[in-house]
Amino acid sequence: MTYLAKPKLHHPTLACNAIGFTRRDYEGKISTLCAGCGHDSISAAIIQACWELDVEPHRVAKLSGIGCSSKTPDYFLGQSHGFNTVHGRMPSVLTGANLANRDLIYLGVSGDGDSASIGIGQFVHAIRRGVNMVYIVENNGVYGLTKGQFSATADQGSVSKKGVANTDSPLDMVSMALQLGASYVARSFSGDKHQLVPLIKGALTHRGAAFLDVISPCVAFNNHPGSTRSYDYVREHNDAVNQLDVMVPRAEIVVDYAAGDTMEVQQHDGSVLRLRKLDEAYDPCDRLAAMNLIQQRHAMGEVVTGLLYFDQQSNDLHGHLNTVPVPLNTLQAAELSPGSAVLDRINASLR
Ligand SMILES: Cc1ncc(C[n+]2csc(CCOP(=O)(O)OP(=O)(O)O)c2C)c(N)n1
Ligand code: SF4
Ligand SMILES: [Mg+2]
């Protein structure tokens, strides 16, 4: 007999964060994914990031599409809001929810199939509009749920489990996000939680469109020699440009890096991103340089990871539209319909 429910009781000695939650309070149901799937490590990193940031679970809205990756919101933040949309439609549902209630933290989780094929039109518009969200693509180069067909992000020449080479050019979602104006762009690897957890924390504290491409090996269909999305390939070709720390205002800021090796930037919510440079020449505030480096290293078979770009002056969709500061879903009839006298004044001003 299989038991798929986690025990509700917690050990009394489990550590609590500043708002009294244990790490287990941020978990969801037991995962039904294949043992070793990279997506489960990303779920664990999301749980860790939210716990460390003292995020109130009821303030998070998780949205996803269809795919193994899109199933994962069931496996974390079980006390948060969730909406599992249809294939490729997560970005528009997230945009609508964000417009109605700007007070929630929006976490979009998708796959390379979900976002780079059927949902590509939705992805580009959510990013270019600067929707305030964390958009994570769990990128394994295949359609895992439908048994391992190449996705649009699969590298040309990479070989399927059955030995067939992919002949199409890959679509790089990081380069696209940069070109579309995302204000926080990062790439990481599901097998590197030391890099991934701070990148998720930085994205959660960022205002604007934060995009994370996380290489996440599919152990069932894309983890063999010849694949460029396998654990071995990514470990051997990972080229990290920096290492991020996120310090929230209440935390003591401990300096442990040599001066000159780091750069700090304050986010809108008061948190500080501290970047330790691993590649001295890399400037994460230069969008064009980021695009160049990613393409150059990709041509060499390298996978560039880290915080690739952020915009210190970032804004979001509500800022662009100049909406009122309160959630639109709290406006009352009197505020939405100010009456004929106001309408007459507006009409008169247009004559
Ligand atoms: C409209 C529609 N077309 C096709 C499908 C079949 N389908 C389900 S998941 C999927 C691709 C999933 O790939 P990805 O987003 O990369 O997720 P993964 O399983 O790899 O994590 C497809 C094509 C569907 N569910 N709905
Ligand atoms: S099929 Fe691939 S993507 Fe889906 S759960 Fe299994 S390992 Fe993960
Ligand atoms: Mg996939």
UniProtKB/TrEMBL annotation:
Start and end residues of each Thiamine pyrophosphate enzyme TPP-binding domain: 66-214
InterPro entries in alphabetical order: 2-oxoacid:Fd_oxidoreductase, THDP-binding, TPP_enzyme_TPP-bd
Name of the protein described by the UniProt record: 2-oxoglutarate ferredoxin oxidoreductase subunit beta
Organism: Luteimonas cucumeris
Alphabetical keyword list: Oxidoreductase
Molecular function as annotated in GO: oxidoreductase activity, acting on the aldehyde or oxo group of donors, iron-sulfur protein as acceptor; thiamine pyrophosphate binding
Pfam families registered for this protein in UniProt: TPP_enzyme_C (PF02775)
TM regions (residue ranges): none
Entry's Gene Ontology BP terms: cellular respiration; small molecule metabolic process
PANTHER family according to UniProt: 2-OXOGLUTARATE OXIDOREDUCTASE SUBUNIT KORB-RELATED, BLR6744 PROTEIN
